[in-house]
Structures are given as C-alpha cells and as structure tokens.
Description:
Radius of gyration of chain B: 19 Å
Number of strands of chain A: 19
Oligomer: heterodimer
Strand order of the largest sheet of chain A: 5-4-3-6-7
Number of strands of chain B: 7
Radius of gyration of chain A: 23 Å
Order of helices and strands of chain B: EHHEHEHEHEEEHHH
Helix content of chain A: 25-40%
Bound molecules: iron/sulfur cluster
Largest sheet of chain B: 7 strands, mixed
Structural class of chain B: alpha/beta
Amino acid sequence: MAFRKKAASPPEPPKPRTLFEKVWDAHVVDRQDDGTCVIYVDRHLVHEVTSPQAFEGLRMTGRKVRRPEATIAVADHNTPTTTGAMDDESRIQVETLESNVAEFGVPYFDMNDARRGIVHVIGPEQGLTLPGMTIVCGDSHTSTHGAFGALAFGIGTSEVEHVLATQTLIQKPAKNMRVAVEGSLPIGVTAKDVILAIIGRLGTAGGTGYVVEYAGRAIREMTMEGRMTVCNMSIEAGARAGLIAPDETTFKYLDGRPFSPKGGAWDLALGQWRRLPSDRNATFDSQLDLLASDIPPMVTWGTSPQDALPITDVIPDPANAPDENRREAWARSLAYMGLTPGTRLVDVPIDRVFIGSCTNGRIEDLRAAAEIARGRKVAAGVSAMVVPGSGLVKAEAEKEGLDKIFIEAGFEWRLQGCSMCLAMNADRLEPGQRCASTSNRNFEGRQGRGGRTHLVSPAMAVAAAIRGTLADVRDFQ
Amino acid sequence: MEKFTTLSGVAAPLPMVNVDTDMIIPKQFLKTIKRTGLKDGLFYEMRWTADGQKKDFILDQPAYQNAKIIVAGPNFGCGSSREHAPWALLDFGIRCIISEDFADIFYNNCFKNGILPIKVSKEIIARLMDDASRGSNAIIEIDLEKQEIKGPDGGTVHFEIDAFRKKCLIEGLDDIGLTLEKKSSIDDFESRQKDSQPWLHTAS
Lengths: 477, 204
Ligand code: SF4
C-alpha cells in the first residue's frame, strides 16, 4: 500500500445526531463528569393529583415557582364527567390546586374554562406544545407531546417540585431507539393498532432506558392526532419518551394556535424546527422495523399492554408462552380476565365501552368513532360512553353534530376529563365487567376493581359496542 | 430526605413480573394531598378482598410484617408516574427493593424518597428469592457505601449504582438545593435562550 502524504486534517464534520440528541443538547444547563446533566424545562404541565405535595414542599422550604409563565395547570384526572357534585376528597384536591396556583401565580384553566381538558390534549390544542421543546408533567403519558418533536416525559412529584423551583431536572441522557413503520396502513387500521402492535413486539419493558423515535412512511402519513396516539403509549413499552420528527403536518397543525409563535417569531421558529429531524447518518442504539401492511386491527386480551393480538386471533394458551415468567403472567391474566385459551377474540362478550382519554379523546378519534356509530345501535345490555379529551374537543364535536350521532346510537355523551381511563372519579367498571376501551392501560383494577379492560382503537370500540362482543371494525366498513 | 447508609432486615419475596404502580397503590388513594399515611393503600387489592377480608398477602404474613426489603420480579414499578407508590412502600417500612430491572420513573422516584432500588442479575435474584422465602429467619443486609448485599448465610454480592445517586442517598441530599446552587448557570441558559428562541419566553 502506498503511503499518502497526510493532508492537513479538515475540520471534523459535526457528528450526526438524532432528534433526541439535538433537543437534549440544546437544553443542557450543566454537565457533571459522570454525565449527569441539569436539563432546562421549557414547559411544565401541572394537574391536581400529582402536584399538591410538590407545592407543599415549596411552601415548607420557602421557595417560589421560578417561571410561572412556563407552567400551566388544569384539573383533569379526578373531575366529574357529569354535572353532579364531586366527593369531598376530590373536591379538596381540586380546591387545593386552585389555591396553589393562586398563591404561586401559575396560569390555570379553571373548572368552567372551555379550554379545560386532559393535560395531554390541551397542550397541543393550545400551541403550548412546540417542536424542540422539553416538556414535563407529573404523568407518565407526557410522552404524547413527543409527536411534535418535543422531548416530553413523565416525572414524579418530587421532580414536579424540582421543576417548579428551578425550571430544570437532573437527568442522564437516554439511549436512542428507532422504530420504523414502512408502507401505508391498510383500511381499518389506525395509529392505535400501530402502537399496540409495536408494544406487542417490544414488550412492556423493551423500551426501558430509551427514547423511541417513530419513523417510516406510515408515521409520516399520520395526522397529528394519530402521531399523538402513537407517542402517548411509548411508556407502555417502558420508554421514557416517544418522538416524531416535525414536518409540514406538524407546522400546519400548530399555525395559528393560541400560544404558537406569531409573525416573525413563527418564521424564526420554523427555520429552527426544520433542522430538528435526525441526521441521515445518526446512530441509534436499537432499531425495530415493521411493515404497515402486516398490522391488522389489534386488541389486548390480558392485563399488560404487551398482551396485544390481531382481532382475528384467539386467546392464547399459557402452555405456549415463550418462557416461565410469561407463562405465569399469562395464567394470572387469564384468570383475572375470565377468559379461556382458544376462544376467538370476536366471541368475547363485553358489558361496557369507553371512548376517550389522552390516547384517543381527540376530535379525529371522535370522528372515526362516529363514522362507525352513524345509523347503528349499541347492543342491548351494553353501556357505552364517549368522554371528549377537552372542552374544545367537545365543542367541536357538537358543532359537527357528532354528539347527536353518538346519542342516537345509544352512547352517553359526557363532559371532558380522564374519566374511566383511570377511574378515579365516579366512572368505573364494576367487578367482573368487561370493557372495550380506547385508553392505554389494561392493568388489573385500572378501570375499577375487578374490571376487565380490552384496549382498542375508537372505531373498534364502537364496533364492539354495536356487536356486543369484541369485533373487527373491517366488518363495518 | 432520610439518609440511606446500611440496612438490615427481613426481605419479602414478590416474584411476579410487571408489578405496576396501579397494583402498588390503587387510584382511590391518590386523592390525598399528603405524602404520608399511604401504607393502608399499599398493594390494596392484593391484600384485601372486595368485601374487606384479608387475603394473606405476603406483607401481611407474620414473618414479613416487618419486612424492610422486597425482592421483586422484573420490571417492577411499571406504569403510572405516581410517587404515591414509593410513598406507600416507605410508609409501610420498605427501604430497599431488589429486582432484575425497574421501570424508569419508579426507579427515579425511589431515590427521591430515600428508598434504594438495587438492580442485580437474574441468577442473584433467584438466590435472594430463595433467601427471602425463608421468612424472618433470613436477615438480609445492605451496605450502600460498599455496594454489597449480604445474604443470611454470610455470602455477599456486589451491585452497581450510579455514583451521583449513591452520594445523594448516603448524604440524604436535597437535590433542589443542589440545583439551586447552579442558579447562575440557569440564569445564563435562560438569557441565551431568550435571544435564540424568543417565542419560548412569551407568556403562557
Ligand atoms: S387520560 Fe388516562 S392516561 Fe391520560 S392523563 Fe388522564 S389518567 Fe393519565
């Protein structure tokens, strides 16, 4: 081999970075030698359930909220979806939030504000969620906001207090995972089916320690609502956050929202946002590829979101579980769910239907549900409800006449809030009741003690309501 | 926050996989505005039948009523971010959880409350699970400084832990106080950001 004269080395090209790395790097306030960083938080969402102890902590130490204007508070988790009164404990929790935001000067959408709704619905709706931001909330589904290319994750109450006091968090960077869904989604298959299929593949702990970037044509073709559904459930695979590169769909959604930048600031922001997507040669620590055409409408059968199967499948047999741990978990799930191996999923009868939550409580979700409900009737013996994700989603749905379609079909049309996603308020399953739900967790007792949850898309939930059993939405289209 | 240096106590075995925070503390206990008094809600649905009868859950068995340690199955603490989960464990007297792996948010929340979550291999978990199942005869000792778990038979195993988290636990540090010492860096960051991304500094 010939010796070549060593040329003066050109300046090193910048290392290709992932979207996660770009947002992370832009928010490092301080880095210790061991890699622990102080990370700046651009937006902090606060709700009634995980904040009282944090405000109390500030009071006890005489600390203030560093940037009240970067914070927004709302009551959503434990609010009633009917006009009835709240129980004492719940009322005290909401009143505590109200006195805390007043004392610390935090902006608040009050109980009568039409903008009130689930934190993860109102952030994007108001333009409070923007690309490139860091966003935190004392709620694990904060990952929703990653749909905008914002680094968004759930934190505990001690960290809520930390953010209130310092506008920062102490963190180490996560690992990068890329999940690509190539090709276009078949008819009847939605963002919910995609994320259930992904969680089924990754497992409930497969994303632990990672931030997952979703990519590929199927993701790019999704609306913002669909992308939010996907990012929302990242935590169900254990991932700290989900991310999707911002693009024209993102910008169009944000343009003109109340808190989106305006005029010159918008142009400046846009210029920066366009540079956020992962560089072509950026390296990921892990990669998962799926074909959109392989994803059918999905449903969960067990008590972990990873227990997801195509609706055409049957209840699995623990004897066929891949390992001992899984065998025990499956057997326990089946006992809890009251199901027998070999039963066809479409033969599983249901008692209740819940359409709503930060996963599927947005206007597009309600439109998709209404389309199947139009002119049909909820099966006898099934009780079904629709809970919009925010007051504005509710108003828009009513403007479009969706409420009428639901009511005529036999659904209850409720006030906005988290409702039966976590069943803290009066909306809950009775022991043994089985529910087709558009929410995100099918844990034991999640929707009420002894309640049995099957996670599905909004259209699939309506199909189940009408048939009275879990059902394949493709039979209705 | 209470310091964590050494701990010696009974360990309760809880081999189930994916113990989620809804199991650790169900939603009806989240209506509180306090951090304390949550032990009654700990593992509520696993401890009590719907009509209020005790179910003989592991932590209610005489041998484990004073357990300070839980040896747990993998992916402990998955699900919701509720810090009520570590608060309830702490209120019961649990100061240490040993598992193959933990869900991120729960893991983080433990450190903020003086609870030590220890990650060890599957093989070590199997051994500790055995030890734990011997009940109150089997005292397990934890030494955070040395990063060691000592089993009832005297054998020790080493565990890994992030140096900064270890320091915070051993010294019982208030990390808000630590961060506030970096106030000038935060001020600088903010003023830089105000110039480069002014839209992040208009009021919400
Ligand atoms: S809708 Fe459910 S998952 Fe979403 S924020 Fe509310 S309780 Fe949490």
